[in-house]
């Protein structure tokens, strides 16, 4: 289960809308529930259909979380023109053990990848 306050879900949506029509990417961090939304630059050469979090920004963000005693809870990204389902590329390139949260045209869902097991998203 992934617990996210409504306000932070909206903050994430706002970030992804600013990135559209490109895919947007970022981190959710916190202790038990999401406490922090951390947008990251998408530096993928084909950002309309794929994402790659800027490696240096990602490293900086992870270090800052560690300093503050927060854990990485999820990685989010958007499918501006597609469903909230992992794409073949999402599955192939998955390497984190936290849920992948996908914002699609039909809503938002979370999955463990590459297994594809859905994680319940609980909005607080
Ligand atoms: Zn994707």
Describe this structure in words.
Pfam families: Prok-JAB. Residues 1-124 form the JAB1/MPN/MOV34 metalloenzyme domain. It is a single chain. This protein is of the alpha/beta class and 124 residues long. It has one domain (2-123): Cytidine Deaminase, domain 2 (3-Layer(aba) Sandwich), CATH 3.40.140. 27% of the residues lie in helices and 33% in strands. The chain has helices at 6-19, 55-68, 88-93, and strands at 2-4, 25-30, 34-40, 71-78, 100-104, 107-112, 117-119, 121-123. The strands form 2 sheets. It has a 6-stranded mixed beta sheet. A two-stranded parallel ribbon has the order 1-8. 30% of the residues are buried. Zinc ion is lined by residues 77, 79, 87, 90, 102.
Summary tags:
124 residues, alpha/beta, Cytidine Deaminase, domain 2, six-stranded mixed sheet, two-stranded parallel sheet, globular, binds zinc ion
Give the SSE layout.
Elements: E1 2-4, H1 6-19, E2 25-30, E3 34-40, H2 55-68, E4 71-78, H3 88-93, E5 100-104, E6 107-112, E7 117-119, E8 121-123
Parallel strand pairs: 1-8, 4-5
Antiparallel strand pairs: 2-3, 2-4, 5-6, 6-7
What can be said about this structure in brief?
The chain is of the alpha/beta class and 124 residues long. 27% of the residues lie in helices and 33% in strands.
């Amino acid at each position: 289960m992934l617990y996210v306050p409504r306000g932070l879900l909206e903050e994430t949506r706002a970030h992804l809308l600013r990135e559209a029509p490109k895919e947007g990417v970022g981190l959710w961090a916190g202790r038990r529930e999401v406490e922090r939304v951390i947008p990251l630059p998408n530096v993928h050469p084909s950002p309309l259909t794929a994402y790659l979090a800027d490696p240096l920004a990602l490293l900086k963000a992870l270090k800052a979380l560690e300093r503050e005693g927060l854990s990485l809870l999820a990685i989010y990204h958007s499918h501006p023109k597609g469903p909230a389902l992992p794409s073949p590329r999402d599955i192939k390139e998955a390497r984190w053990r936290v849920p992948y949260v996908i914002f699609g045209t039909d809503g938002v869902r979370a999955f463990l990848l590459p297994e594809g097991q859905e994680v319940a998203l609980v909005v607080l």
